[in-house]
Amino acid sequence: MKKPVATEKFELGVCYYPEHWPESMWEDDYRRMRELGFTIIRIGEFAWSIFEPVQGEFQFGLFDRAIDLAHKHGLQVVLGTPTATPPAWLTHKYPEVLNVTYEGVTLQHGMRRHYNYSSPKYRELCARITEQMAEHYGNHPGVVGWQIDNELNCEISEFYSESDHKAFREWLQQKYVTLERLNEAWGAVFWNQSYSDWSQVYLPRPTPSPKQPNPHQALDEKRFISANTISFAENQADIIRKLAPKQWVTTNGLFGHLDSHELTDELLDFFSYDSYPQFSTIFYDPNERNPLNDRGWGLSLSIVRSISPNFCIMEQQSGPGGWVNRMDMPSPKPGQMRLWTYQSIAHGADMVLYFRWRTATMGNEIYWHGINDYHNQPNRRVREAGQIGQELAGAGQALIGTRNQANVAIVRDYANEWDGEYDVWHGPFMWKSNKEWYKALQRKHIPNDVLYLRKKTTLEELARYDVLIYPHPAIMTDETASLLDEYVQQGGKLIFGCRTGYKDERGQCYMRPFPGAARDLCGITVEEFTMVKGSRQPTTISWSGAAEGVTGADDFNDILRIEDDSVEVMAVYASDYYAGKPAVTRNRRGKGEVWYYGAVFNEQAASIIIDQVSLQSPVDWLVLPEDVELQVRNGTSSSYTFLLNYSEAPVAIHLHETKMDLLSGTTLSGEVTMEGFGVLILH
Ligand code: GAL
Questions:
Q1: Are residues 599 and 666 in the same domain?
Q2: Same domain for 472 and 549?
Q3: Above 80 in pLDDT, residue 221?
Q4: What pLDDT, on a 0 to 100 scale, did the predictor assign at position 546?
Q5: pLDDT per residue over 150-198, tens digit each?
Q6: What is the value of pTM for the model shown?
Q7: Boundaries of each Beta-galactosidase C-terminal domain copy (predicted)?
Q8: Whose CA is nearest to atom 6 of ligand 1?
Q9: Most buried residue, 135, 281, 412, 442, by most Cβ within 10 Å?
Q10: Is residue 361 in a domain?
Q11: Are 578 and 528 in contact (CB under 8 A)?
Q12: Which of 565, 589, 612 is the last residue of a domain?
C-alpha cells in the first residue's frame, strides 16, 4: 500500500540547510517558519560529510539537534539521503565512482552529481550511509519521510565510466542473450559494426562526427540508463522501507533518461517535483509565437500528475534564480510567487515546500534566492509566504486528495522521447507539438492530462478521455496500434501528426507504407513527404469548414493518399507542387474517429481541431479572458474550480452561478474582477 502525500492537512514548508548557518540562528528560523504557517522542512540532502566526515565514522550530532529542535517547534522533517554529493574523501580514495563524459573527461568536485550509478563501491557506500541514517532516524517522531538522493539525472544524464560500460554489457546480455540478436537489433551489418565477442560491446563512444552513435545502440543506452538509475535508487528505497517502515519515500525531479513512472510504481509512495516556472522563459525559444511563459509550466506539472495524481512539490520557486555563471532569472513580481504556488496546487500538489528558507551566502547558488534575503530582515517574499500560509491553513484541507478533471490527454511515451534525441526527423516535432497543443487548450480553458503509453497501459486508462492527442509517435508497435484501435472503436477520438507509426521498438524502420503500424487506424497512406526548411519555402494548409481558412503547415509535410472509404479530407495543402492534395484527414472507425495531420502542429491548427472534435471547457458557468487558466479538482462530493490570472493587470471574469471563493471565503457572482496575478478557488 502506498502512503498518501497528505492525510490531515495541506502541508506547506521550506527547504532548510541547518549546516549552512550558525546554530544560534536555528531557533529563530523555526519560530518564524511556524509564524508563516509552515509545517514541514526538508533537510540533509547534500550533507554527507557532516554525517560521515571520515570513512566509517558516523556523526549525527548536528542533525540530531536540528531535527529535535524542529520537532519541538512543531515542524515535520523530510530527510534527504545525501548521495547526490559524495564527500571528497570518498572520490579521492575511490576515483572509480566518478562519472565520465562521452568524450572521456572524468568529472570532479566543484558542483554535484559527479558520480556514476554503476560503481559497486559507490553503491556499497551509498547503502551504508542510507542504512546508518535510516537506523538512526527511522523511529524519530519528527521525521515523516525520505527523499532519495536529489534530482536523479539532473545536471547530467549520461554515464561513461568503466563500470557503466560493464553494467551496460551485462544489461544487454540479459536482454538479448546472444550476440546474434544484439547485432540484429542494432542493425550492426550497417557500416560493419557486427560484434563477435561481448567484450567488444560498449556504450556509445566518440565517433568522427561529434555525437553520431548508432541510433539503435543509443536508444538501448537510454533504456539502460533508466533501468540503472532505478536500480541505484532501489538500493536506498529497500533500506529505508526496512528500517523506517512508517515514514514515506519519495524523490524529486523529472529529468532525462529516466522512466519516472516505473521508478514511482516500483519504489516510491509518491513522486515529488521541483517547480521553477521561470525556467519556461530561459529555456524556451525566444522567437516562439505567442508563448505561454510561466503558464506553460503547467505542461510539466501535468506530466508529474500522470506519475502521481497527487504529488509533492519539494522545491517551489520563491525568488529570482541564478547560479554564479548561469540561469539568471528575474525576480518574481508581487503576487507571482503566490500564483506559482497555486499553479502547483491547481495541478494536483498536496504538499509544497519552498526553495529555500534563506539565500545562501556562499557557493554556486549565491544568486538563487530563497524567501529570506542574506540580510534576514523582513521582506516582500516573506510576507507573501505568510499570506499563502494563512490561506492554506484554512483552505488546504478541503483540497487534499481531490483529483484533477480532464477530458483530453496529450499522449507521450519514453521510447519516442529517447529515440527522438538522435532523430531530427521526429524528435523536435514532439516537443513543439506538445507545446502548441498546450497553448491552444489553455487559451480555450480546457484542462488536459498527459498520458504516458506504457506496456501496461490499459484500455480503461485510455477510455477516461474523450480525445487523445499523440502528435508524432514514430515508434509504434502493432500492439500499441491495436490498443489504440480498441480505444477508437469504443468511441475515442485520436489525433496523430506527421511521422507517425514508421519505426519498430528498436527504432528500425518498417518496410511498410507510412504510417506503418497506424495505417489501418488512419485509413490513409503517405504518398510523399518532405522537411519544410532550407531551400523549401514555408507551406500552408487550407481548411474546408474552418473560419480561419489557411494555417501554416509547419516543419514537415506528409502528402496523404486516401485508402479507405471511411476517410474524409478535412484540409488540403494550399501551396507548393502538392497544393490541393490531402493534408488533414479524419477516419470514422467504430464509434470513434482518427485524425491524421500531415505537418507539425501549431496553435492555430490545434485550435481548429479542438472545435471540430467538439472539445469544450468543462465549466459552462464561467466566461473567462484568455489570460486566465482554469483547472478543476474534484472530490467525492465537492468540486473546486481554480482560476489563475497570469497577467499583471486585473481582468474581468463573469460567473453565471453564485460561487464561494475558498481562499477568501467571499461569495461571488456576475461580473468579478481578478487582480493581477490573482487566484480564485471557486466551489
Ligand atoms: C534544484 C536543486 C536544488 C537547487 C535548486 C536551485 O534543481 O534540487 O538543490 O539547486 O535547483 O538551483
A1: no
A2: yes
A3: yes
A4: 61
A5: 999 999 999 999 999 999 999 999 999 999 999 999 999 999 999 999 9
A6: 0.97
A7: 627-682
A8: 368
A9: 442
A10: no
A11: yes
A12: 612
Boundary of a domain, candidates 555, 590, 612: 612
* 540/674 same-domain check: no
* End-to-end Cα spacing for the chain: 31
State residue 78's pLDDT score. Answer: 98
* Residue 562 phi, psi dihedral angles, 5° rounding: -75, 130
Residue with cell 563500470: 163
Bigger pLDDT: 67 vs 285 = 67
Question: Which one of 11, 131, 151, 384 is the catalytic residue?
Answer: 151
The atom number, within ligand 1, closest to the CA of 314 reads: 8
Q: Is 35 a catalytic residue?
A: no
The average pLDDT across 437-463 equals 98
Mean pLDDT across 414-442? 97
pLDDT tens digit sequence for 8-26: 999 999 999 999 999 999 9
On whether the CB atoms of residues 600 and 555 are closer than 8 A, the answer is: yes
For 339-396, write each residue's pLDDT tens digit. Answer: 999 999 999 999 999 999 999 999 999 999 999 999 999 999 999 999 999 999 999 9
- Residue of 472 and 321 predicted with greater confidence: 472
How many A from CA of 276 to the centre of ligand 1?
Answer: 9
The whole-number pLDDT of residue 544 equals: 87
Q: What b/e sequence results for 388-399 when a residue is b if at least 16 CB atoms lie within 10 Å of its CB, and e otherwise? A: bbebbeebbebb
Q: Are 416 and 482 members of one domain? A: yes
554 in any annotated domain:
yes
Q: 244 and 134 in contact (C-beta within 8 Å)?
A: yes
Q: Which amino acid is at 383?
A: R
Query: Exposed (0-12), middle (13-18) or buried (19+): which is 653, by Cβ within 10 Å?
Result: buried
pLDDT tens for residues 94-149? Answer: 999 999 999 999 999 999 999 999 999 999 999 999 999 999 999 999 999 999 99
Q: Round to whole Å and give the CA distance between 674 and 651.
A: 5
Catalytic, out of 45, 131, 221, 315:
315
Give residues with Cβ within 8 angstroms of 601, minimum separation 6.
432, 433, 436, 437, 471, 497, 554
**How far apart (Å, rounded) are the C-alpha atoms in residues 80 and 41?**
11
Residue 157 and residue 665: Cα distance in Å, rounded?
46
Residues with CB under 6 A from ligand 1: 150-151, 154, 274, 315, 355, 365, 368
Full domain range(s) for residue 426: 408-612
pLDDT of 645 higher than 90: yes
Closest C-alpha residue for ligand 1 atom 12: 368
Distance 172 CA to ligand 1 centre (A): 34
Amino acid at 511: M
Can you count the helices (H) and strands (E) in the chain? 19, 26
Residue 147 within any structural domain of the chain: no
Q: Are 537 and 660 found together in one domain?
A: no
- Nearest ligand 1 atom, CA 150: 8
**Is residue 281's pLDDT more than 80?**
no
Tell me, what CATH number does 459's domain have?
3.40.50.880
Assess whether pLDDT exceeds 80 at residue 285: no
Are residues 532 and 428 part of one domain? yes
Q: Which three cell numbers stand for residue 605?
A: 491548427
Look at the chain and report how many structural domains it folds into: 2
Best residue among 17, 151, 157, 356 to mutate for probing ligand 1's pocket (most ligand atoms within 8 Å of CB) is 151
Taking residues 550-566, what's their average pLDDT? 98
Give 654's strand partners.
623, 671
One domain, residues 596 and 651: no
Is residue 8 part of the annotated active site? The answer reads no
Mutational test site, ligand 1, from 113, 250, 315, max ligand atoms within 8 Å of CB:
315
Q: Looking at the structure, tell me whether residues 532 and 565 fall in a common domain.
A: yes
Closest ligand 1 atom to residue 45 Cα is 9
- φ, ψ of residue 34 in degrees (nearest 5): -60, -40
C-alpha 356 to ligand 1 mean position (Å): 9
| Closest-lying ligand 1 atom to the alpha carbon of residue 365 | 12
